[in-house]
Design a protein that fits this description.
By secondary structure, this protein is mainly alpha-helical. The protein is built from 12 helices and 5 strands. ATP binds at residues 80-87.
Length: 273
């Protein structure tokens, strides 16, 4: 994690940790049967037409997938391997909410982690039966960062976005040089570590200050934050942190969002920012 330095007594609980080697229970599941919605959903069921339309579009859901699509109220999580149809379940669930439960698209938020994935998700929803382009456009769909940034801009937070990774490395290199630590740390490692701190809501003053390494990391992190503040910059991690702070301190905004957004669906949740 750090180069050329190891100091006994450093409190590593604040720093990114590798996977420990303790024994763990590995989750497993039984092999599913081959039945799809064609056999499971009977024609006399109230939502049969919805599933027949999906089947005509090549979407044939299994028992658990059907249960997820029909489970509109309350929390639902779909855990399955890559390519097993999680995104199809999510998009079908959105269509089900809008067509079968008459939920207004403006009350639904769809979140994912890349712009490409967000666009593909909207395209897949648009292709589903019973949904108009107008209705799909009313869905609040995008990445965590794009949607949260929209809220931040609406709240008057107009700092420029520090999105260039090369520029971030230049900033860190400059800070390391000022501190005489150029030979001790790689900029990429520091950037990754700061991202870890921010995603765990750890501020510079929250870090330990017991050992030389503790102090160095704390100083680097603090100087990076000071530089951004001076230059009126925020990075992608800041977008998430500031949004969290707004929701925990601005009750009017929180209430406004809660009254507007009734359903939140997240694709690829395991990728978490």
């Amino acid at each position: 994690m750090y180069t050329n330095k190891t100091v006994k007594g450093t409190d590593t609980s604040f720093y990114p940790m590798g996977v420990n080697k303790k024994e763990a229970i590995i989750p497993c599941t039984q092999i599913a049967n081959n039945y799809s919605s064609e056999q499971i959903v009977k024609n006399n069921e109230a939502d049969a037409t919805f599933f027949r339309n999906l089947e005509q579009h090549g979407i044939k859901l299994n028992q658990k997938q059907i249960e997820a699509v029909r489970s509109v109220e309350g929390p639902v999580i779909t855990i399955a391997g890559a390519g097993s149809g999680k995104t199809s379940v999510l998009t079908s669930r959105v269509a089900y909410m809008m067509t079968e439960k008459q939920i207004h698209p403006g009350n639904i938020m769809l979140l994912t982690f890349t712009k490409k994935a967000a666009e593909e998700m909207k395209e897949r929803i648009s292709s589903l039966p019973g949904l108009s382009e107008t209705a799909v456009r009313q869905l609040l769909a995008g990445t965590f960062h794009s949607i949260f940034l929209r809220v931040l801009r609406n709240q008057g937070i107009n700092e420029k976005i520090l999105s260039n990774e090369k520029y971030k490395q230049i900033i860190i290199k400059k800070i390391l040089k000022e501190l005489g630590l150029s030979a001790s740390y790689e900029p990429e490692t520091i950037i990754s570590m700061i991202g870890y701190f921010k995603n765990h809501m750890i501020l510079p003053n929250d870090l330990p200050n017991k050992t030389p390494i503790d102090k160095e990391i704390r100083d680097i992190y603090s100087m990076y934050e000071q530089f951004k503040k001076k230059e009126h910059l925020i990075d992608f991690d800041d977008i998430l942190v500031i949004m969290y702070e707004l929701l925990t301190t601005n009750m009017k905004l929180k209430s406004l969002i809660q009254n507007k957004i009734k359903y939140v669906l997240i694709d690829e949740f395991q990728v978490r920012p």
